[in-house]
Amino acid sequence: MKVSANSRAPQAAPLPVDLADGVFPAGCPSRTVLDHVTSKWGVLILLALSEGEQRWSDLRRRAEGISEKMLAQTLKTLERDGLVRRDAQPVIPPRVDYSLTERGYELSALLVPLVAWAFENAEDIVNGQR
Amino acid sequence: MKVSANSRAPQAAPLPVDLADGVFPAGCPSRTVLDHVTSKWGVLILLALSEGEQRWSDLRRRAEGISEKMLAQTLKTLERDGLVRRDAQPVIPPRVDYSLTERGYELSALLVPLVAWAFENAEDIVNGQR
DNA sequence: GTTGGCACTAACTTTCATGTGAGTACCTTA
DNA sequence: TAAGGTACTCACATGAAAGTTAGTGCCAAC
């Protein structure tokens, strides 16, 4: 699946034109979105939810180390961005389910391979700081 | 190209087992790598370099808004992580070329679609904060 | 002869993301 | 009756990330 070591050196590929022109300018919205999505906890939450609907307390346990404040904040941002759906049932004790929207699934589909790569290469990278 | 609205709701997919168990724990190396890679400027630099070797001052102009300090810092981190190669020629005036390593290219291949998605959806997302 | 480009480093400051701890309202179980 | 779970919010503290300013050595062009 890799281009193979001897066939050719890693290739530089031109980016799509609109991307090349669009992402780099300072004030562009994609930078904001990228910031939300690639925030410390954003990735983890999106990833966790890619496995399906989950409750507040599930997420809290899942994303090890997150504080309640950051969980609330991250979820709120992702909800405002239309990536996460919040479903609060008026029962007692409270029950709130979080899930990805269609757009959220689109994103997580791109995020999963990235995180998988990071996971696979993490040890090499962290150790190999020559 | 979309799964279509009526066929089925967006599907939850189980993550690869090792990923599901590996990424969420607090102290795991993948979190560090993810932090480097998804840092504000890391993404931009990796993206810029995916188009091929570039000089310091090229990058500085390309990643609009970056300070010299942040450029140096980001490049250093990515170099230590083995994603970026630094080639300093002993000429005057100094000339330093930066390029991606093979591992860097692997990463950028995953990053490009993500950024492209962010770019395409950015306006919708930023405006549609209902 | 001074301005400017090149590729940086270092010191200092500000801003912002994240963390901490407490409090809320209600109910269940011990 | 006290402890604990559920899903939060709010005020405050801290620390890391990012920005700012200045300075380096050398050369070329003006």
Automatic annotation (TrEMBL), chains A, B:
Transmembrane segments: none annotated. The keyword DNA-binding applies. Residues 28-126 form the HTH hxlR-type domain. InterPro entries: HTH_HxlR, WH-like_DNA-bd_sf, WH_DNA-bd_sf. SUPFAM superfamilies: Winged helix' DNA-binding domain (SSF46785). The keyword Transcription applies. It comes from the Bacteria. Keywords: DNA-binding, Transcription, Transcription regulation. This is HTH hxlR-type domain-containing protein.
